[in-house]
């Protein structure tokens, strides 16, 4: 089966080489479909890579669960999804009135791992199973995170307000 690369919620900024899906028919959008409507119009295991920037925070909690399950469904085993959201500690996570509560944080992604859910949140009915790695993208105006070691960076990422503008999660589909 031939796979595609998918840019979810691409708007007017579709990534080169990706199929763009958005709820609005912007120039360059290939598939007009609202992420809230499942299933998405892609076959199981038909996508190798997903890019999704500043979309997830617009979904409610239950819609986020459906989102993760759909991402898992359409990705090939071992497929990657790069999800970018405002970092929970930055005012940009709260400033946009269209963002839904709660803000996305690294803990959000723990729920996408089946073993973690079974042990810590068996009440959450999701089928997805991902391995996730995170990083914070600092505010370019902030020297607080430049030239520090990884442990210090992780500590600052988890405890300081307005230091990181974005949370970037690389999700890998597990079976």
From TrEMBL:
It holds the Pfam family Methyltransf_11. Residues 31-83 form the Methyltransferase type domain. Transmembrane segments: none annotated. It comes from the Bacteria. InterPro entries: Methyltransf_11, SAM-dependent_MTases_sf. GO terms for molecular function: S-adenosylmethionine-dependent methyltransferase activity. This is Methyltransferase type 11 domain-containing protein. It comes from Ahniella affigens.
């Amino acid at each position: 089966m031939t796979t595609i690369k998918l840019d979810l919620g691409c708007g007017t900024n579709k990534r080169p080489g990706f199929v763009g899906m958005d709820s609005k028919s912007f120039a360059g959008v290939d598939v007009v479909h609202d992420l809230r409507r499942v299933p998405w119009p892609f076959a199981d295991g038909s996508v190798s890579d997903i890019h999704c920037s500043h979309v997830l925070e617009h979904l409610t909690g239950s819609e986020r669960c459906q989102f993760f399950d759909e991402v898992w469904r359409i990705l090939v085993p071992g497929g990657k999804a790069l999800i970018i959201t405002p970092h929970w500690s930055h005012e940009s996570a709260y400033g946009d009135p269209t963002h839904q509560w709660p803000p996305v944080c690294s803990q959000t992604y723990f729920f996408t791992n089946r073993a973690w859910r079974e042990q810590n949140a068996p009440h959450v009915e999701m089928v997805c199973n991902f391995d996730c790695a995170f990083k914070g993208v600092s505010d370019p105006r902030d020297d607080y995170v430049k030239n520090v070691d990884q442990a210090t960076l992780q500590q600052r990422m988890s405890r300081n307000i307005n230091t990181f503008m974005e949370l970037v999660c690389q999700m890998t589909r597990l079976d």
